[in-house]
Amino acid sequence: MSLDACKRLAARSAADLVEPGMIVGLGTGSTAAFMVERLGERVAEGLDIKAIPTSNAIEALARSLNIPLTDFATHPVLDMAIDGADEVERGSLHLIKGLGGALLREKIVARAAKRFVVMVDFTKPVDRLGARTPVPVEVVPFGWQCTSVVLGQLGAKLISPRRGPNGDLAVTDNGNLILDCDFGPIKDVQELATRLDGAVGVVEHGLFPCMATDVVVATDREIEQWTP
Ligand SMILES: O=C[C@H](O)[C@H](O)[C@H](O)COP(=O)(O)O
């Protein structure tokens, strides 16, 4: 089975956890797009839900599929958020997210949800976060070079400002920048997350410790559902 087929399998399985009447957070990324497509099919069949998207791209996809949208003013608490991830640590279910640049809105939506379902293909589970994926850190543009120095002091070995296809600094949906920070294998995810939370200039980071309530993993043969 191809990687895309695995993503689609995990995504459709996660989308099928949504029940009528739910307020649902829509994650961002290629796996999330498959999930939104499946929700679009279910809405076309009569499923009554409202959704809050985590990026402009996913909002456009949801609108194109006629998925009704809402906002936090009307629904400050979501029943479920469903999203992909870049790495999932086996056992703890800590996550790295944000290679698609949507980590800030994704974390706001996940925090507002009673249940946070993460769906991944077989390439995403790892024994320890950070060995192969940098931690994306969203920073305010003002003084980002100073913030980069602070991130180095917090242990980032290599810091790469995210750039777009034209070579310019990439700007998030929130008007910020992303610094991809290679911390190597992370021994204490919660501790690093707390340090990053306290760094001046950091808006949010892609460590999601102890947030997933369910992880749906698709291998080429089966679907597994992990809980903490
Ligand atoms: O900002 C992007 C998100 O955190 C994505 O959920 C994450 O990068 C996984 O994306 P994909 O499903 O495309 O691998």
Automatic annotation (TrEMBL):
SUPFAM superfamilies: D-ribose-5-phosphate isomerase (RpiA), lid domain, NagB/RpiA/CoA transferase-like. Belongs to the ribose 5-phosphate isomerase family. One of its GO terms (biological process) is pentose-phosphate shunt, non-oxidative branch. Its EC number is 5.3.1.6. GO terms for molecular function: ribose-5-phosphate isomerase activity. It comes from the Bacteria. The active site is at E106. The keyword Signal does not apply. This is Ribose-5-phosphate isomerase A. Homodimer. Pathway: Carbohydrate degradation; pentose phosphate pathway; D-ribose 5-phosphate from D-ribulose 5-phosphate (non-oxidative stage): step 1/1. It catalyses: aldehydo-D-ribose 5-phosphate = D-ribulose 5-phosphate. The gene is rpiA. Catalyzes the reversible conversion of ribose-5-phosphate to ribulose 5-phosphate.
